[in-house]
């Protein structure tokens, strides 16, 4: 099975699960409210073959709690990303869609401060690759996958500051070069 086909199945499974599960315990307003409340944006600092690149993203997701105390959850999300990648042998500008799916746990949460730990997998599909300046014969792998883990600190139940690390399981280029890793910082309102 090709990675692109696999991503389609993952996307359908991840985003249909909260709708079916949420309908049993709440009305449709909960889904819309969570998608609005979970809107987020951020910046990633990538390390590709020892050189730094930057990208930005915006997105949203749905948090589905697995226990009665609402502490353990699965969080599928969707992000639109744009950036410029540079590595030995050239670089490119891109626009992509990312589907991070994380499992998390609320360590504590009160009206003043809360903290979560999370980890999971992220799939990314490049929609466009422009301004390429790559060595001949080298193409960008349009499908990417990686692991992520991090923490989120929520302040005054109004916004959160998130920090995570991403480790690419696939390479950025079809010649096997360009394994990415990145530090991710975001603010959610």
Describe the structure.
The chain has 189 residues and is α+β, with helices and mostly antiparallel strands. The protein has one domain: Porin (Beta Barrel). The protein has helices at residues 3-25, 28-37; strands at residues 40-48, 51-61, 64-65, 72-87, 90-109, 113-134, 143-155, 159-171, 179-188. An eight-stranded antiparallel β-barrel has the order 1-2-4-5-6-7-8-9. A hairpin with a 6-residue loop joins strand 3 (64-65) and strand 4 (72-87). The longest helix is centred in the first third of the chain and has 23 residues, at 3-25. The radius of gyration is 18 Å and the shape is elongated.
Fill in the keyword field for this structure:
61% strand, alpha+beta, elongated, 2 helices, 189 residues, 9 strands, Porin, eight-stranded antiparallel beta barrel, single chain
């Amino acid at each position: 099975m090709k990675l692109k086909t696999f991503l389609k199945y993952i996307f359908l499974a991840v985003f249909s699960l909260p709708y079916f599960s949420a309908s049993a315990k709440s009305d449709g307003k909960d889904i819309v409210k969570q998608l609005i409340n979970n809107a987020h944006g951020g910046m990633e600092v990538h390390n590709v073959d020892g050189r730094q690149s930057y990208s930005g993203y915006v997105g949203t997701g749905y948090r589905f709690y697995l226990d009665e105390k609402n502490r353990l959850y699965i969080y599928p999300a969707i992000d639109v990303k744009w950036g410029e990648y540079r590595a030995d042998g050239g670089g490119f500008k891109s626009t992509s869609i990312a589907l991070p799916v994380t499992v998390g746990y609320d360590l504590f949460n009160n009206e003043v401060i809360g903290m979560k730990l999370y980890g999971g997998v992220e799939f990314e599909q490049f929609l466009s690759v422009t301004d390429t300046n790559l060595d001949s014969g080298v193409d960008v792998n349009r499908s990417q996958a990686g692991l992520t883990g991090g923490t989120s600190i929520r302040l005054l139940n109004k916004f959160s500051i998130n920090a995570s690390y991403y480790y690419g399981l696939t390479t950025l280029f079809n010649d096997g070069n360009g394994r990415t890793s990145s530090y991710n910082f975001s603010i959610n309102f």
